[in-house]
């Protein structure tokens, strides 16, 4: 069937019809070419030829990353000669997953980003400063590179560099857009201030931001988004990418959630029992990849918690939209009947004046509840400060964890314990941590 770049303009029934046909193709292909899915469908008693409509999706087994890891290369559906790239997940949880991509998969990867860039206003002749890594088996940098070529824009392949190098290149090459993680924008704004430079004079006016969410569950800028708005000023477009799916979702200029690309993937948001939850309710994002050759994914549980944004987007584009990623499923904590993710606590702490740094700990509590301890690094000698933090947490996150004040240096010691290079903000000390409940 091929790419359907105009699919967003179809009525919901038209989008569903296209997806049903692509689902039939994807399931038949997986059953035929992927030893992993052939066995999985057989074990679940699923006849691939019997999958006809989107409703049939619910009959297919759900796949987790661990399922695939157990049979890694069996999940590859093409012989070695057809593998054009091997990419890998970053392995934030467990071992990395290696994903085979064919030439056609690379075109799909580029087409996906072409749409995202076009929505943020990119056009032929534009220049984009790419500040994410393009090596180390990382798929996103590659995706941006191919996508920009499809737009007719040029890529300035900077990758991970010191802030000064980014600023010098921007000043010399005057890019129209930027691709980065949000924290880099903060670092660049800080560097420019320290060096007495006017960022506005040469910084790109549009940024595509991968990684941390810049909007909260209400789709308005969160603390990070507000900091970026103040330090940067250009228009910020959020994106969510999933390495193993060679897939990204994008914001449109309305900034009302992340649009999926209905001819490239089917989106579900599932509860713990694997049942779809209503729009607006949080659950685990599951992806069924369409038009993929190298490594098919059918009803793949991502571990990421989000929700489907209800209603139509003001931009008029159809298809599913998701909210920001609110956390990882295995980081879910239960405090007195309230479900909470570390990201939400993090978000609330970032907004409290006087909080220098922090570590969030989950301990096994009594019965069905977890004991959450927040160690806050502060220079405030005020004995009431822990109450101020507690009130802010309750107001923003509806939880009342234990708060322990410490010096920023002590908290730094915890964040970088064991000589780690990246700070560990969330520490899971529960006896049976992760998704067992
Ligand atoms: Zn939109």
In short, what is this structure?
The protein has 11 helices and 20 strands. With 437 residues, the chain is an alpha/beta fold.
Describe this structure in words.
The protein contains eleven helices and 20 strands. The chain has 437 residues and is of the alpha/beta class. The protein folds into two domains: 327 residues, ANL, N-terminal domain (Rossmann fold), CATH 3.40.50.12780; 97 residues, 2-Layer Sandwich (GMP Synthetase, Chain A, domain 3), CATH 3.30.300.30. A six-stranded mixed beta sheet has the order 4-3-5-6-7-8, with helices on both faces. A four-stranded antiparallel beta sheet has the order 10-11-12-14. Strands 19-18-17-20 form a four-stranded mixed beta sheet. A hairpin with a 2-residue loop joins strand 15 and strand 16. Helix 1 packs across helix 2, helix 6 crosses helix 7 and helix 7 packs parallel to helix 8. The radius of gyration is 22 Å and the shape is globular.
Fold topology:
Elements: H1 12-33, H2 35-44, H3 65-70, E1 85-88, E2 98-101, H4 103-119, E3 127-130, H5 139-151, E4 154-157, H6 163-173, E5 177-180, H7 182-194, E6 206-210, H8 223-231, E7 235-242, E8 247-250, E9 258-259, E10 265-270, E11 283-289, E12 300-306, E13 321-322, E14 327-328, E15 333-335, E16 338-340, H9 342-350, E17 357-364, E18 370-377, H10 385-397, E19 402-406, H11 408-415, E20 426-428
Parallel strand pairs: 3-4, 3-5, 5-6, 6-7, 17-20, 18-19
Antiparallel strand pairs: 1-2, 7-8, 9-13, 10-11, 11-12, 12-14, 15-16, 17-18
The structure holds zinc ion.
